[in-house]
Amino acid sequence: MSQTDHNVDPNEVAKFEALAASWWDLEGQSKPLHEINPHRTGYIAQRCKLDNANVIDVGCGGGILSEALAKNGAKVTGIDMGEMPLDIAKLHAMESGLDIHYEQSTAETMASRHTAEFDAVTCLEMLEHVPDPAAIIQACADLVKPGGDVFFSTLNRHPKAYLLAVVGAEYVMNMLPKGTHDYKRFIRPAELASWCRQAGLQVKNITGISYNPLTRQFSLGDDVKVNYIVHCHKV
């Protein structure tokens, strides 16, 4: 294992390798990602200029967010450590007529090779799947230009998140495969904000992402107890 691979959990990579074939099935196991994606993309588009911006999507998986960013005019690079999700992402981008550069790489490796090259960095639903999330945050801060924007989303280590995101989503409603999330790796907003500041990022906004099981719809709001998205700015 190289020095730059220390922050990769093979078990977590394997989980998403197993999901690769159904990544673009709108009614499959990735359905929640497709339903939440317009809200995440809208949040990002409201807070930074995407048209002709150089954007890197860290932990891009099968490319759901990467494609949305590209459709908003961004020049997108997507990185992930899962080979199969990247293959799916490349194929779907080609079928969609989108020019997206995908690469199998860690955030740390990309940061060492492309320091301060990007106008914006997105790292959504990834921090809770790595051994050292603070190192990923530092890498994202290193990748973005001064004056650029960085976006994170993750799950809060709060009892409500355990009930809804783990018990509810994985075991009751079967929205996600069992074992997708490890509650111990969930991150409180204060912890994330502290790591961001240590990495030289200013936290500009924290917004909650909620799911209503009755309407089966996601929405953005003030409740950060389960899932939340963060906008940071690099000085």
Automatic annotation (TrEMBL):
Does the keyword field hold Transmembrane?
no
Q: Which reaction does it catalyse?
A: a 3-demethylubiquinol + S-adenosyl-L-methionine = a ubiquinol + S-adenosyl-L-homocysteine + H(+); a 3-(all-trans-polyprenyl)benzene-1,2-diol + S-adenosyl-L-methionine = a 2-methoxy-6-(all-trans-polyprenyl)phenol + S-adenosyl-L-homocysteine + H(+)
The EC number(s) this enzyme carries:
2.1.1.222, 2.1.1.64
| Binding site residues for S-adenosyl-L-methionine | 40, 59, 80, 124
Output the Pfam families linked to this UniProt entry.
Methyltransf_23
Keyword Metal-binding included in the entry's annotation: no
Q: Which UniProt keywords are given for this protein, alphabetically ordered?
A: Methyltransferase, S-adenosyl-L-methionine, Transferase, Ubiquinone, Ubiquinone biosynthesis
Pathway recorded for this protein: Cofactor biosynthesis; ubiquinone biosynthesis
GO MF, one term, reads:
3-demethylubiquinol 3-O-methyltransferase activity
An example GO BP is: methylation
**Domain of life assignment:** Bacteria
The UniProt similarity line reads:
Belongs to the methyltransferase superfamily. UbiG/COQ3 family.
The record's function comment reads: O-methyltransferase that catalyzes the 2 O-methylation steps in the ubiquinone biosynthetic pathway.
Q: What is this protein called?
A: Ubiquinone biosynthesis O-methyltransferase
Q: Please tell me the species this chain comes from.
A: Methylophaga thiooxydans DMS010
Q: Which gene encodes it?
A: ubiG
